[in-house]
Amino acid sequence: MNREKRLIGCWAIVTGASSGIGLEFSRRLASLGCNVVMISNQDTLEKCATDLGVLYNVKALPLYLDLTDSNAVASITEFLDRRDITPRLLINNAGIFDFKAVNDLSESRINLYVDLHVRSLTHLSRTIAQR
Question: At the topology level of CATH, where does 3-129 sit?
Answer without folding.
Answer: Rossmann fold (3.40.50)
